[in-house]
Hints:
By secondary structure, this protein is α+β, with helices and mostly antiparallel strands. Helix content is 45%, strand content 17%. It has two domains: 11-43; 50-148. Helix 1 crosses helix 4 (120-130). The chain is elongated.
Amino acid sequence: MRCPKCGSRDDKVIDSRQSRDSSSIRRRRECLKCKYRFTTYEEIERSDLRVVKRDRTHEPFDRRKLATSIAKAFEKRSASLLTLEEMVDEIVHELETSGREVPSSAIGAKVLEKLRRIDEVAYLRYASVHQRFEDVDQFVDAIHTLGRRIKPNALQRELFPPETTQAQSRAAGAGSRGVPNENHGRI
Ligand SMILES: [Zn+2]
């Protein structure tokens, strides 16, 4: 650190302590050349990530907003807060290491990519709210693509009223008969 008095670059740290909330470290330094003492602060670099929205306007990236939108998709699902928190951490880290500006659509894609692995219903909820499908066909395609790889009935219960599900279960015959519908009434 360059000495503010004589400009020498040689100094030693004579004291170092954390701020009360541990978010920064204060170092007391002494210039080796002129003995002048000065203080430096070290703190975490705040993210200056900016989001480019669909209408091409920019806004600062808001972690809380991201966390809220994901939590909404998980409403009444069984994911833990820790899972959510980890997911947000991962996304933020990936975004921060990929550049200073990120299109909102890229954030959405990242969220979807992760939701898909954790909870299919949350995935679809998020997609229906945040991914503007060009038309109904596109949305139906997304459901079908998903439908091919998810656990039987998980999505059905979510998307269709219980009557429909029951009728279809009956029509399908054995399997779900006698098994209580865990999601009943909680959709
Ligand atoms: Zn000096």
